[in-house]
Amino acid sequence: MRILSFGTTGQVALELARAAPLVGAELTQVGRAGADLTDPAACAALIAGAKADIVINAAAHTAVDQAEAEPDLARTINATTPGAMAVAAARRGLPFLHISTDYVFDGSGTRPWREDDPVAPLGVYGATKLEGERLVAAAGGPHVIMRTSWVFSAHGKNFVKTMLRVGAGRDELSVVADQRGGPTPAHEIARALLAIAASFAEGRGTTGTFHFAGRPATSWADFASAIFERAHLPKKPRVIPIATADYPTPARRPANSVLDCTRIRDSYGIGQPDWRTGLTTVITELETSS
Ligand code: NDP
Questions:
Q1: Helix 81-92 to helix 40-49 angle, to the nearest 10 degrees?
Q2: pLDDT (tens digit, 9 = 90+) per residue, 38-83?
Q3: Closest atom of ligand 1 relative to the 57 alpha carbon
Q4: What residues of the chain score a pLDDT lower than 70?
Q5: Whole-angstrom Cα distance, residue 156 to residue 168?
Q6: What pLDDT does residue 168 have?
Q7: Which residues line ligand 1 (CB under 6 A)?
Q8: Which end of the chain is more exposed for a tag (fewer CB within 10 A), N or C?
Q9: In the chain, count of helices (H) and strands (E)?
Q10: 3-state class of 254 per DSSP?
C-alpha cells in the first residue's frame, strides 16, 4: 500500500511516519517545502503525478485563535486546497483521507454529536474546516472525512505540553471546566487512518464522514488534573476549575465537543481509544526524551 501524505511536522503527520512501517505501508510525506497548502494547484498536481494508492491530508491551519485574524489564509489551507486535492484524487480514483474537527459543531446540548447532526461552527477555524469537508465530499471520489477532537502527542503544540509548561512550579492553575470533549492521542489517529487506508486497499473502504475521538468524555480541567497526576513534577499544581467566560479567547469554543463514534466502529471496526492510556504513553515519552 503506497500512501502519499501531506504534512511532515504536525502531530498526526509525525505519528503517521512512526506507524506506517509497522503496518507495512510505504509512506511518502510531503511538507511545506514540497507542497505548500496555500497553493491548491501545486498540491493537486502532486497528487496527479504521484505513485500512490491512497492520499492522506494531515496538514491544516490549526491555530484556532490566529485563524480569526487571517480568515483568507485559513480558508485556502483548510478548504480550497483540500478541495483541489480531493478533485485530483477523485480523477485518479484514489481514496482521499481528510481530517476534520469537532469545531464544526456549535457545542449546544449534552448529547454526543453524530455525523449527521446540524453543523454551525462558532469561528473561522471551524467554518473553514467545514467548507473543506464539503469540498472534499463534492469532489465525488472515494473519501473519508475523519472528525476528531482535542488532539495531543509528545510533539508540536497541544494541551498536554502547555499544561506541563505553564503548570511547572505553580501552586495552582485555573483551567476551563465547562467545555467537554474527547482527548485523542495523535498516535491513535494515525493507527485509525492506516486501518482505513488498508480497508480501501483491500476494496472494503466505505466513503463518508466518521467521528473518531478518545473516551471517556472529560473537561479541560479534569484532563489537566489527569496530566498532573501522571507527570513527575517536583510540585504538582492544584487545578482550579473556571468558566469559559473567565478565560476569554479570540475564537469561541464549543461547550459540548463530545463526538459519538459509533459509525466508525460499525463501518471499520475501529473503537474509541481510552485517552488515559494514551496520556500515560505520551507523558512517558516526554519525560524520557527530555
Ligand atoms: P498540527 O498543527 O500539529 O500540524 C499541522 C500541520 O499542517 C503541520 O505539519 C504544518 O506544517 C502543516 N501546515 C500548515 N500550514 C501549511 C501550509 N501552508 N502548507 C503545508 N503544510 C502546512 O496539526 P495536528 O496534527 O494537530 O492536526 C491534524 C488534523 O487534525 C488537522 O486537520 C486538524 O484540523 C485536525 N484536528 C486537530 C485538532 C487538534 O486539537 N490539534 C482537533 C481536531 C481536529 P508546518 O509545521 O510547516 O507549519
A1: 20
A2: 999 999 999 999 999 999 999 999 999 999 999 999 999 999 999 9
A3: 32
A4: none
A5: 18
A6: 85
A7: 7-13, 32, 36-38, 58-62, 77, 99, 101, 129, 148-151, 156, 186
A8: C
A9: 11, 12
A10: coil
- What value, to the nearest 5°, has the Cα angle with vertex 266 and ends 265 and 269? 50
Query: What pLDDT, on the 0 to 100 scale, is given for residue 151?
Result: 98
User: Grid coordinates 473553514 are at which residue?
Assistant: 128
Sign of CA dihedral 231, 235, 240, 246: negative
Ligand 1 binding pocket mutation candidate from 151, 193, 282 (most atoms within 8 A of CB)? 151
Superfamily of domain 2-158+183-215+258-273: NAD(P)-binding Rossmann-like Domain (3.40.50.720)
Q: Domain ranges for the chain, please list them.
A: 2-158+183-215+258-273
Q: Measuring from atom 23 of ligand 1, which residue has the nearest CA?
A: 10
